[in-house]
Amino acid sequence: MRLLVTGGAGFIGSNFVRYVAKATGYELLVYDKLTYAGRLENIADLVREGRVGFVRGDIADEESFKRVVSEYQPDAVVNFAAETHVDRSINEPAPFIRTNVLGVFTVLETLRRQGGDTLLFHVSTDEVYGDLYGSSAEAGEDYPLNPSSPYSASKASGDLLIKAYARTYGLEYIIVRPCNNYGPYQHPEKLVPRTIIRLLHGKPAVIYGDGGQVRDWIHVEDTSRALLLLLEKAPKGQVYNVCRGNYATVREVVERLVRYMGFDPSEKVVYAKRRPGEDMRYAMRCDKLRELGWRPVYDLETGLRETVKWYLGNEWWWRPLVEEAYVLADTPW
């Protein structure tokens, strides 16, 4: 199989590329804009070894993307390319609309105009379902979309565009919606690496609001395994949730990390103003994925401990990002 992986130098994208390069003989070409969160360092060893190709480019750049698709002729476009940080979307929504909506439109138009049967394997998010706080519901794939932030609204828009193109033009697609990922190569603006790095600098961990936000936490390698399985075995023209059932509040995760690093949460956790429009609970059902035979490997304790070890052992990777990501600042974006 020949895969064009857009956004393949980002967090989940690079972990997926690394997993596929190890587990299969597929041909891989990464197409990435290399924004602040997409770093060539994430896949540099694979590129040097010739196991993965790389082209720098923007999915919203029609001419560039069209040229790469025409020359490479992929069997599937695996689209991770996205602006993803909710805080940034609140302060500056425009880049999210450009990449997550117009970028998806450009991908769709390119595939439509070239004809053929190239699959669009699109990575979305559980946040498109919105806040399930006050309910015991778990969102199945047919659950109504009810996004709360500019980020989640832009992702929901991309999902709906894809489904519309499938119905109107016969586009082949699979949409996947993962829950909260953590693990190696995650940008320090996100909760888990930010907490680890602040503690290493003698700073307290920061929780926005009361920390009662409930998330389902999945290690990125489990996500990568799920995505490869879906790419190879899932019926096309469908949506698949990717979740773990590791429900924990933000406060619980932060306190675990603090303890794993040898500190007392009562002394090393501070609270900041709640984020505007904060969703308090995400929850999904993943029956469709499990019916295909996927089973996760990491429980939350093992996954978080392994993640702490990775960041402790890879300061070279995160050190250049600390200042630009405001990791050491105590207030939100």
Automatic annotation (TrEMBL):
Pfam families for the chain: GDP_Man_Dehyd
GO terms, molecular function: dTDP-glucose 4,6-dehydratase activity
Transmembrane portions of the chain: none
Cofactor(s) of this protein: NAD(+)
NAD(P)-binding domain segment(s): 4-307
GO process annotations (BP): nucleotide-sugar metabolic process
Keywords from the UniProt entry: Lyase, NAD
Protein name: dTDP-glucose 4,6-dehydratase
